[in-house]
Amino acid sequence: MQTKLTLRLDDEVIKQAKESAREMGKSVSELVEDFFKVVSSVRQGRRKGEATRLVRELRGALRGSAVSEAEYQEYLEKKYR
Predict the structure, then answer these.
(1) CA distance 15 to 9
(2) Distance CA 70, CA 81 (A)
């Protein structure tokens, strides 16, 4: 279930959030939801440095592939410019 939430933020913060969301291919709502998920996990006692579920699932995904770490790094840099 999704519920609407109204936030009051400085105009410049909103502008930067919209730019960041566009660069990441997400909506501002998705960014805010991601932020609250992180805050919630910290409140629930996640130890500093513990990997998220997604990171744990992706660990080793490139092992044995023909893609080098440098090539993947280059891909990520291009993708998130």
Answers:
(1) 10
(2) 17
The residues spanned by each domain of the chain are 11-79
Please give the helix or strand (H or E) that residue 76 lies within, else none. helix 69-79
Rounded to the nearest 5°, which phi and psi values hold at 75? -60, -45
- Sign (positive or negative) of CA dihedral 24, 78, 69, 48: negative
pLDDT tens, position by position, 16-59? 999 999 999 999 999 999 888 888 876 666 555 666 777 777 77
DSSP code for 46: P
How far apart, in whole angstroms, are the C-alpha atoms of residue 69 and residue 75?
10
Q: For residue 10, what is the DSSP state?
A: -
User: What is the distance between the alpha carbons of residues 29 and 7, in angstroms, rounded to a whole number?
Assistant: 11
